[in-house]
Structures are given as structure tokens and as C-alpha cells.
Amino acid sequence: EEVPPIVAGRFGLEQRCAYRHPDLYDEEVPEVDLETVVSRPQLGAGCAVRGFLLLGDQNAGKSTLLHSFCRHDDPSFMELSSLLPVLASSFVNTRLVPPSFLGAASDPNQQLSSVRDEMPFMDTDIARGVVMLTLENFLFFCSEFGITGWGTSEFGEAAAGQAAQPREFGEDTRFVALQFVELGGDHLDRLLRFHAAGGDLDAVRRAEGAPAGDDAEQGFWSDVHEVLLGSLRLLQDTTRTVYFINCALLLGGGRLNTCALRSMLRKLRFVDGALGGGRGPGTPGGEVLFYCSRCSEVDPAAFDPAAAWAAARAEAAAFAREELRAPALAQRLLA
To answer: What's the superkingdom here (predicted)?
Structure first.
């Protein structure tokens, strides 16, 4: 498997790749290259953009999903293209690290390093993927899979007058760009620290072992501050997202990893308040869908559902009691 090389970028380290369909891509297709992970491509008036936000645990497969639209050499890419004919796609994965984090002799392209604990991707802070389709193929995909609102009825049937341009798109729309943004598990942890500190970046720096008064890296931390604020705005603008659960970590060895569960509960509490509709932790936010990844790595013979459920309830009750200060909720969880 070809691994995207790790190179220096605007906000730390990057991995990039792109794909262009050898027969269907031409000069009329909008360019999908990304200058940085926080920039949006200028796609022109004839292209509509639909955005999706992915959240989740570390090493849960989010970057793998975004990268899959560029993996044209993979045997499964033809099957993917038959469902979603990709004209062009791009992927950029970013790890926000200061220059001093790596050290002069460190090689980030080692299989395992301070920025990558599993192959092939770095531990993501933010990743972005863009997939370009024709409008016709996008509408056909929605119709085939019963995705309502894009020329299909709530029953998955073709809507009356589907031959006409759906009202969600302008008359000149010829292409649809699907834009996926991933906020990685490490980035969510940093957002948690930033939020808990009331937006105090120096507190985040201290928590990560970075000297608050280091002028040599002031530019990097200024960038981090802007990225964190941008991530909070993105969450506030999002009303529905998907959270990837790394089951290999959560249920490794057939036992519930209570430390991993506690970390996930903290993230979910933060996300619940940060998503559009929420007014802070404890108030209802947007909708979160869950995707359980890496389930095949959990040994079913060693897994005890009853023991795992009991441990999960006990840990959730402890979380409610210790961090939410909600003893009544803790009692209900144990009842």
C-alpha cells in the first residue's frame, strides 16, 4: 500500500494525495486542490458544495474514509466508483506540531514516530477531503439510496418533475463537491482543554508541556489559536455529525477499556454542547450518529457482553458523579 509521505506544511506536518479520473476529468471540472487544511477550494458558480463533519476517537478510521476517494490503485476503488463516480478528489491530513516537537534528528516518515502511532496516517488534528461529482451522478446516488431532499421523496422514490433542476441547486449547477472535514481525536482533546480553560491558550500550552513564554514558537501557537477558534465555529455551524468509535481500543482483548470510555464520554459531553443548537455542556446540541469501526479486531470468543455492560454502566455512573456532579443521574445509571 502506498503511504502518503509526511512533509512540512503551513500548520505543521501534512500528508496529501489527489486523484483525477483518466477519462472523465477535463478542464471544465472545477479544481479541488486544497492550499491548506483550513482553506476551502474556490469551485466557481457552477459547483454546489455539501459539507460533512466527522468526529471520533483516535485511530477510528476517519482519515481512512477520506483517503479512500483517492486510492485509485486499491482493488475496491472500482466498486466505490460504480456507486459514486468520482471525477476528481483530494485529501490533506494535518498534524499541528511546533518545530521543536520533532527534534532535529527525528524522521516523521518512520513507520512509527512521535506523530504517528499506527500506519499509514499521522495522528490527525484536522483532515479534509473533497470529492467532485457531476450533478446527475449525485442525484442518481441519492435516489438509489433513498437520501431524501435531493430530487427524491421521503419514500425514496423519484420526486415528481425530477428532470427539472432541484430547487436546492442553481440553474447553472453542473457539479457537486462533497467536502468532508475531520476533527481528529487529538484535536478534540485539545479543544476540550481550550474550552475548559475558558479560551486561555497559555493553559493549553502548559498542559502540553510547551513553555508559555517561548517567543520562537509564538507564530505556531498563534496559528493554533486561530485553528481552535475556527473549529469551535465549525461545530457551532453543524447540527448533525457522525462520531467514530474505535472498538479495537474500547473493547480490546474482549474487555471494556474504562479509560477509553471515560475519554469518549468527555469528548461527547463537549460535542453535545458545542454543536449547533447547544448552549454549552449539559444542554441539548445537534444530532450525533455513531459508527463503530474496527469491530473485526474484537475477539468475540473473549468478549463478555454482560460484564462489559456492567462495567460501562459503572464507569458512566462514575463519570456522572465525578465530572458532571450529578449524583441522581449516577444512581439511575446503576439502578
So the answer is: Eukaryota
Max Cα distance, the chain (Å): 64
Query: In the chain, where are the structural domains located?
Result: 1-147+168-238
240-246, strands of its sheet edge to edge: 7-9, 12-20, 88-95, 126-134, 175-183, 47-56, 240-246, 287-293
pLDDT digits (tens, 9 = 90+) for 29-88: 888 877 877 877 777 778 988 889 999 999 999 999 999 999 998 889 999 988 899 999
CA separation, residue 66 to residues 54, 124, 127, 212, 269 (Å): 10, 12, 8, 35, 25
Closest CA to 288 of 265, 318, 307: 265
Residue 6 identity (one-letter amino acid) = I
Q: Which three cell numbers stand for residue 305?
A: 457482553
The model carries a pTM of: 0.88
Residue 183: which H helix or E strand, with range? strand 175-183
